[in-house]
Amino acid sequence: MEHLKNLITGALAGVVVDAILYPIDNMKTNIQAKNQLYSIFEARKLYNGIIPTLIGTIPASAFFYCFYEMSKKLISENNPNISKSALYIASTSIAEITASIVRLPFEIIKQKMQVSSEATVKNIIKDVLKMQGAQSFLLRSYLVIIIREIPFDCIQYFIWETLKEKGQKYFREFHEKHPVLLSSLSGGIAGATAGFLTTPIDVIKSKHIVYGRSYIETIMEISKEGYLSFYKGCLFRTYYLFFGGFIFFGALRLFSFKKDKPCETNPQLI
């Protein structure tokens, strides 16, 4: 029953975030892949790819949060002296490796639709299957998603859990009155920080998925434009992940229907 609750909680929170903030993610992808933004007259294009994104978000978010909570519980029970940082790194890594298998096809479809208003789900699937080295492309895409998501999730969840615990300890009255808001604020700060720090990997991932080139070719192409090009779209990504973290972790707390456990001080927090 607990795992089912985690599945539902993760799915609901993920859908809420993507439905509200999708246009910002779309603009970020276009800056990274094509160096352009849609004009105000092309606002409808900001929602290109949102349907497959929402469909993919449900199982991916559900799997991630369920495996995160499940692995965190199992690891902490079997290793009671494990540090918090090691616990979060292990839990988020296990969760992301699982969730990214589900996320991969939807991520490819989403980003290709974001940069091309003519692209359809059917045509994208056909093109990917027909391309030379399709299996290699899918494997590289999966790996680059993992390379981006694992450090992002480790940073995000570590900051979120830490801020939440500190808030529960030092602002107990505020936490008791506004537990959802505390979770939201902690999540927003965590998402923005993790998003900014992992932007270079996100730029490589976007270029690779859109154009299908190898890692080396993609990195060389970005380097030609200067090293600051690895931070293209960082403001959009930071804004998106601040508000995304604010909404997601607030919704996570709201939909979880459970009280936070009393805060315990751990000398191995970092």
Automatic annotation (TrEMBL):
Solcar repeats: 1-74, 83-166, 178-258
Subcellular location: Membrane
Annotated keywords: Membrane, Repeat, Transmembrane, Transmembrane helix, Transport
Pfam families according to UniProt: Mito_carr
Repeat in keyword set: yes
PROSITE patterns reported in the protein's UniProt record: SOLCAR
InterPro entries in UniProt: MCP_dom_sf (IPR023395), MCP_transmembrane (IPR018108)
Residues passing through the membrane, by range: 6-25, 46-65, 179-197, 238-255
Lipid bilayer topology: Multi-pass membrane protein
Chief location: membrane
GO cellular component terms listed in the entry, alphabetical order: membrane
Family: Belongs to the mitochondrial carrier (TC 2.A.29) family.
Protein name, as recorded: Mitochondrial carrier protein, putative
Lineage, top ranks: Eukaryota, Sar, Alveolata, Apicomplexa, Aconoidasida
